[in-house]
Specification:
Number of helices of chain A: 5
CATH class of chain B: Mainly Alpha
Order of helices and strands of chain A: HHHHH
Largest sheet of chain B: none
Strand content of chain A: under 5%
Mean pLDDT of chain A: 93
CATH superfamily of chain B: CHAD domain
Number of strands of chain A: 0
Radius of gyration of chain A: 19 Å
Low-confidence stretches of chain B: none
Order of helices and strands of chain B: HHHHH
Largest interface: A-B, 45 and 45 residues
Helix content of chain A: over 70%
Oligomer: heterodimer
Shape of chain A: elongated
Low-confidence stretches of chain A: none
Distance between the termini of chain A: 40 Å
Radius of gyration of chain B: 25 Å
CATH architecture of chain A: Alpha solenoid
């Protein structure tokens, strides 16, 4: 699993400045994890991107009051949609992996039913990949990366103005 | 589950003071699911408790180094709770999905046998060999038994884990740590 960068925080650091710094960091991690995510042969890539999305969503929610609310709501909604799409792909990935491990412990007579369920999950995985591909395209079209960085910049600018 | 709103957060105040308020609310949310979630039939409460654990874990992972040393221990404990509840949730999703899948195959076999019987007075058991999914039912039944047994076992582990947290004063110790301030940078957490 992709390791998140360490975050140094100081108790007396202004909340708003921490928000800008940490959101920039987690945004970078999210978009770095997007390479090869549609390749179903390596299920860890989707997992890494999903974890990065969760971490980003978490810091957005933790630091919500530090951002301009009109822009923040749309950005958070887009991050949630991306997370949902990653889940559509990740859930069958995990299920297939678990079923294949389970099947190894079965008597031969019991394997066909589990193999049949894995086939059904493969179809779900394919549909999930299509959902994810569309979500990645939408993320690009809507400039989510740039909007996230703009949110961080706005938090910094508010601090300078204060 | 919608997170409870944390009132009084101030973007211009110190990180630790804001984070402390968030930790207190998220900790209260998590603990508030007990004793309801101690009932294994409370699937929704268990799912919501997992979400509450995740929210507490994330605020601790990001801001834990601002607080007293127990915050680091608590981060790990909350992750344990979240992971275990996640495994239980996976069972709660997979049990009905597998049952529905198995039921679909049974229905398909019944329909196929009905067609194969044609105008017969009664169904000849010998026709069962022609059922398209005849070899698949046994494995799905075994899988359902496995998932149900695993869910029972994981729920036992959850009750033990929560009892252990209570015995060790998890809530009070984290509340105390959230009121403490680290003097210098602690070793960074993820």
């Amino acid at each position: 699993m992709a390791k998140a960068q360490d975050i140094d925080v100081a108790p007396d650091e202004p909340y708003r400045l921490a928000a800008a710094r940490i959101v920039r960091m987690r945004t970078g991690e999210l978009f770095e994890s997007a390479d090869g995510v549609l390749d179903t042969r390596d299920i860890e890539r989707v997992h890494d991107m999903r974890v990065a999305t969760r971490r980003l969503r978490a810091v957005l929610e933790i630091f919500a009051p530090c951002f301009p609310q009109s822009e923040f709501k749309g950005v958070l909604s887009d991050v949630k949609q991306l997370a949902d799409a990653l889940g559509e792909r990740r859930d069958p990935d995990v299920h297939i992996d678990a079923l294949q491990s389970f099947a190894k412990a079965l008597l031969a007579a019991n394997k066909p039913g589990v193999v049949r369920l894995v086939e059904d999950m493969r179809a779900r995985q394919t549909r999930g990949n299509e959902v994810l591909a569309a979500a990645l395209e939408r993320t690009h079209e809507r400039g989510l990366h740039e909007r996230l960085l703009a949110l961080a910049d706005a938090a910094d600018a508010e601090d300078e103005a204060a | 589950m919608k997170a409870r709103r944390v009132k009084g957060l101030d973007p211009d105040a110190m990180l630790a003071d804001n984070a402390e308020q968030i930790v207190r609310v998220r900790l209260d949310e998590l603990c508030g699911f007990m004793p309801t979630a101690a009932d294994p039939a409370e699937v929704v409460a268990l799912h919501d408790m997992r979400i509450a654990a995740k929210r507490l874990r994330y605020i601790l992972e990001v801001t834990g180094p601002c607080f007293g040393p127990y915050a680091r221990t608590a981060t790990k404990l909350v992750k344990d709770v979240q992971d275990l509840l996640g495994e239980i949730h996976d069972c709660d999703v997979q049990i009905p999905e597998t049952a529905a899948f198995a039921e679909g195959l049974l229905a398909a076999d019944a329909a196929a046998l009905h067609v194969a019987a044609g105008a017969a007075e009664d169904l000849d058991p010998a026709l069962l060999k022609q059922a398209p999914h005849a070899r698949e039912h046994a494995g799905l039944a075994v899988l359902q038994a496995h998932l149900r047994a695993r869910r029972l076992l994981l729920f036992d582990r959850f009750l033990e884990l929560w009892a252990d947290l209570e015995r060790k004063g998890f809530r009070a110790r984290l509340e105390y740590a959230a009121g403490e301030r680290a003097d210098v940078f602690n070793e960074p957490q993820r």
